[in-house]
């Protein structure tokens, strides 16, 4: 599906559609991000796909050093209500990178790269290089892994459900497939090959929360 489809879908959403809206869930996700990025305090941070700011309090980043970008006006409005002093930008990932003049120590995204096809990923990674300082890092979290899509569509859900011995209901699984609520599933080889140029190191690691997703980590 096109970028326009996803922008239209998210334009009026009031919920980021994570596996849970519980504080502990977001706290755990924040800890997972920091495990890979290291402490963010004192660093200039860009979060692409910031949504309603659910993860922001768990990053422990200085508010003046943070920029949040999202193409959902409704979710950004909720973010601004909760944290009026935060700098937010209404834009898609590629559009922001095309017009951005700042450089950041850390670039973070969660559940964003699934809305970009392979051609768009290449454009995004090429543009991202101009927005990260020397020795900076990028962590793109929660990318659906193509090699695991068949397992997901057989009815398994996120890792907490698997560990609890439960499966996603057949109806929910079919809806996920028919409505394509996930977007693009990316394979490891494509991710690594597209993300490698201009970096000193690239890794793909498993998500600790979603068995069918991975995290792409880039060092510059």
What would your notes on this structure say?
The chain is an alpha/beta fold and 220 residues long. The chain has one domain (3-144, 185-219): Rossmann fold. Helix content is 35%, strand content 21%. It has nine helices and seven strands, in the order H-H-E-E-H-E-H-E-H-E-H-H-H-H-E-E. The protein has helices at residues 3-10, 23-37, 73-82, 93-99, 118-128, 149-153, 159-163, 170-178, 188-195; strands at 45-48, 66-70, 87-90, 104-110, 132-144, 201-206, 213-219. It is globular.
Question: Topology, please?
Answer:
Layout: H1 3-10, H2 23-37, E1 45-48, E2 66-70, H3 73-82, E3 87-90, H4 93-99, E4 104-110, H5 118-128, E5 132-144, H6 149-153, H7 159-163, H8 170-178, H9 188-195, E6 201-206, E7 213-219
Parallel strand pairs: 1-2, 1-4, 2-3, 4-5
Antiparallel strand pairs: 5-7, 6-7
Helix content: 25-40%
Which strand order do you get reading across the main beta sheet? 3-2-1-4-5-7-6
Architecture in CATH? 3-Layer(aba) Sandwich
Q: What value does the Rg take, in angstroms? A: 17 Å
Percent strand equals 15-25%
Measured distance between first and last alpha carbons: 31 Å
Low-confidence stretches: 160-166, 173-179
Q: Write down the CATH class.
A: Alpha Beta
Mean pLDDT: 87
Sheet of most strands: 7 strands, mixed
Structural class: alpha/beta
| Shape category | globular
In summary, what is this structure?
The chain has 220 residues and is α/β, with parallel strands linked by helices. The protein is 35% helix and 21% strand. The protein has one domain (3-144, 185-219): Vaccinia Virus protein VP39 (Rossmann fold, 3-Layer(aba) Sandwich).
